[in-house]
TrEMBL record:
PANTHER family per record: ACETYLTRANSFERASE (PTHR43441:SF10), RIBOSOMAL-PROTEIN-SERINE ACETYLTRANSFERASE (PTHR43441)
Entries under Pfam families matching the protein: Acetyltransf_3
Name of the protein this chain belongs to: GNAT family N-acetyltransferase
Lineage of the organism: Bacteria, Bacillati, Actinomycetota, Actinomycetes, Micrococcales
InterPro entries in the cross-refs: Acyl_CoA_acyltransferase, GNAT_dom, Ribosomal_N-acetyltransferase
């Protein structure tokens, strides 16, 4: 499929391009982003170039992984993060969302807006230009409190603790799983999480 640009009055989501290479290298050196994502280490200019020139176009063309750069609408030339809608299965009506945001963009509601925009597109009927999905899920390490807060704010429902489900930088950790359906009212949630996970949820972490 062809890349789709999305946005609202504050946030613009568009495909990462060559002008974003320097920002990608800068942001993906952040230890917090490295800790909770699968970005290569080191994330150098050669990889960033391959990412925007080859990998992103291939992922869009497959229709299985849709990649957007997160930007402020008033500063569209400055990449602040990336949001992916991946494992897209239009036959089953399902996908998963993942995202990360640079330090300069955090604490401003940008990630919350970006996820909401992508969910709108995911659930919009195909006849209206969307994907017509039924369910979008989210998975993140229990330590990734920032990503969890965004997921709560956009209305994802907590579905459970996945024991030992993730391996991040050679370390196995438990994961949280949440999801939202097209039929759900997307209002902020306050998850009730099993006691065994609570001791790690207060640790800082970047957006997933």
């Amino acid at each position: 499929m062809e890349p789709v640009t999305l946005g609202d009055d504050e946030v613009l989501l568009s495909r990462p391009v060559e002008d974003d290479i320097a920002a990608l290298v800068e942001h993906c050196a952040d230890p917090e982003i490295v800790a909770f994502t699968t970005v290569p280490v080191p994330y150098d200019r050669d990889y960033a170039t391959r990412y925007v020139q080859e990998l992103v176009p291939q992922r869009w063309a497959s229709g299985k992984k849709l990649v957007w750069g997160i930007r402020r609408r008033q500063l569209p030339g400055r990449l602040l993060g990336v949001i992916n809608l991946f494992d897209v299965d239009t036959g089953r009506g399902t996908a998963e969302v993942g995202y990360w945001l640079a330090k300069e963009g955090r604490g401003k509601g940008i990630a919350t807006r970006a996820v909401s925009i992508v969910l709108d597109y995911a659930f919009l009927a195909e006849s209206a230009g969307g994907l017509g999905l039924f369910r979008v899920q989210w998975t993140a390490a229990v330590e990734n409190a920032a990503s969890r807060r965004v997921a709560e704010h956009v209305g994802l429902r907590y579905e459970g603790l996945l024991r030992g489900a993730l391996v991040l930088r050679g370390r196995r950790t438990d994961a949280l799983r949440a999801a939202v359906l097209a039929s759900d009212e997307r209002v902020p949630q306050e998850w009730v999480i099993a006691d065994e996970a609570l001791h790690t949820l207060s640790l800082p972490g970047p957006y997933n």
